[in-house]
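User: Let's play a game. I give you a shape written as tokens, and you guess the letters that built it. Ready? Here's round one.
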């Protein structure tokens, strides 16, 4: 699907989407698998009981929700700032910058699953780990770029280029 700047939306979305799936599906699934084997083998003895871990659970839950909100905020901020260095390199710059911005947002949502795993390692509770992984997956579904969103990003980047507001090259 090409537009005024000859940007193929599918080509821009494929790499970030697959990398996001790797980060937000494979990593949490691996954490679940590790927790399952720990649970089955009774490998570790927990330092905190469920009741003593409640405060930590609520703290990490608030952090998880805050991280989800931060990922949404960062998505808006990173995707709508000037990304293009020159009008001639519009498509290449957009593809590279969408990938970078997506990775940052995906890392934030993956951290939510890691919070759950840390809670599991400290106080147990496979169901709590699963809750954090579920929150991580929902956050990933909210922030992952889609065609409609990318069309808005291209329109915003076009306005930046028309107004001669370019991204600064990295130093």
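Assistant: Ready! My guess for every position:
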């Amino acid at each position: 699907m090409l537009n005024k700047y000859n940007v193929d939306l599918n080509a821009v979305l494929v790499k970030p989407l697959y990398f996001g799936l790797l980060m937000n599906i494979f990593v949490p699934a691996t954490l679940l698998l590790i927790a399952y084997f720990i649970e089955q083998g009774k490998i570790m003895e927990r330092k905190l009981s469920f009741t003593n871990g409640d405060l930590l659970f609520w703290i990490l839950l608030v952090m998880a929700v805050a991280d989800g909100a931060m990922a949404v905020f960062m998505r808006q901020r990173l995707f709508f700032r000037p990304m293009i260095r020159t009008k001639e390199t519009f498509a290449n710059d957009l593809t590279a910058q969408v990938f970078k911005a997506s990775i940052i947002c995906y890392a934030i949502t993956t951290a939510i699953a890691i919070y759950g795993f840390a809670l599991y390692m400290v106080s147990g509770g496979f169901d709590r780990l699963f809750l954090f992984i579920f929150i991580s997956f929902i956050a990933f579904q909210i922030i992952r770029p889609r065609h409609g969103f990318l069309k808005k990003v291209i329109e915003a980047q076009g306005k930046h280029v028309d107004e001669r507001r370019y991204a600064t090259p990295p130093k």
